[in-house]
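Tokens as discussed.
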């Protein structure tokens, strides 16, 4: 098996390193020439949940430089970079190549448009990792991965994809990967947008009752859209049941919802929004593929999503510098 992995951030770099450690033939594409040299000469240093090790591997800064074809192509870039990458990878594909989306947001329509449903594999990444400078990645939490085809026309090998990703953590093949992706999309839409807007880690943010209320209402809007679209959303991580949160409307039910969200905040108290991290680096966020996706899906089925629409607008203002991440922004969230 010949593997290509595009995107050497925290998740992509972790997967590539774990594959190489298992002696898989893996080639890496990164953004910067200096990172190419570092990976080839010094390697990627992994610490945390998978131990402490360093691996070197072939690396390129541009897809156009690669003169080979691959059995599996993993794409682990930001969602907004996916379209340009998909335009370039066709010459690297075989008739049965599997192209695996490792994005947090949902962009399977782009994969379908450019490489076709017969090649596309969706993946929900359940582990966490942080990049502490080029070449240094800490795997911060364990977690399973779910993979699945998006059509019965799929011509690749899901078992081979499963075997590769099992080098990192347990990987399961599921029947409807879109439902699992939507489940992760909901929790990302809560954590990433509110983290960017407030500028606070999850634990500190969710101590505030008003923010927990918004958190709950994001879930309710997303499930309202899912119901109209006939998407059966599984509990996130097998534990966070969105439908129970959606159905609780009594005073007691609301208290239970707030308790659940408090527990989430306490368990992941130091979790920092990926969108907030992007803003701090002067980069775009993936808001269009989180809350923006819920907004677009709602419009397609005639379901209003005023909260998600408001959050998208606010994060766009953060991107352009019209706002700064701070708790006071919450006062401007108007949707009821």
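Sequence:
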């Amino acid at each position: 098996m010949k593997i290509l992995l595009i995107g050497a951030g925290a998740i992509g770099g972790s997967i590539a390193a774990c594959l190489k450690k298992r002696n898989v033939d893996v080639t890496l594409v990164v953004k910067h020439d200096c990172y190419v040299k570092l990976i080839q000469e010094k390697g990627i240093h992994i610490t945390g949940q998978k131990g402490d090790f360093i691996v070197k591997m072939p690396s390129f800064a541009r897809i156009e430089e690669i003169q080979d074809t691959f059995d599996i192509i993993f794409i682990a870039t930001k969602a907004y970079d996916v379209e340009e990458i998909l335009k370039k990878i066709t010459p690297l594909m075989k008739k049965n190549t599997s192209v695996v989306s490792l994005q947090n947001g949902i962009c399977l329509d782009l994969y379908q448009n450019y490489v076709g449903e017969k090649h596309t594999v969706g993946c929900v990444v359940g582990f966490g990792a942080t990049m502490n400078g080029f070449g240094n990645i800490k795997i911060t939490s364990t977690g399973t991965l779910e993979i699945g085809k998006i059509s019965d026309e799929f011509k690749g090998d899901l078992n081979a994809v499963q075997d590769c990703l099992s080098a990192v953590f347990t990987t399961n093949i599921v029947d409807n990967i879109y439902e699992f992706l939507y489940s992760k999309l909901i929790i990302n839409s809560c954590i990433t947008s509110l983290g960017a807007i407030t500028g606070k880690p999850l634990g500190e943010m969710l101590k505030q009752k008003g923010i927990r209320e918004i958190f709950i209402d994001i879930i309710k809007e997303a499930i309202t859209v899912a119901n109209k679209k006939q998407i059966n959303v599984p509990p996130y991580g097998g534990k966070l049941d969105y439908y129970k949160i959606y159905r609780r409307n009594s005073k007691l039910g609301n208290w239970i919802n707030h308790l659940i969200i408090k527990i989430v905040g306490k368990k992941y108290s130091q979790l920092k929004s990926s969108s907030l991290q992007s803003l701090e680096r002067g980069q775009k966020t993936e808001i269009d593929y989180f809350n923006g996706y819920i907004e677009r899906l709602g419009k397609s089925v005639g379901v209003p999503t005023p909260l998600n629409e408001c959050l998208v607008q606010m994060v766009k203002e953060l991107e352009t510098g019209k706002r700064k991440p701070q708790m006071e922004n919450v006062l401007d969230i108007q949707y009821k």
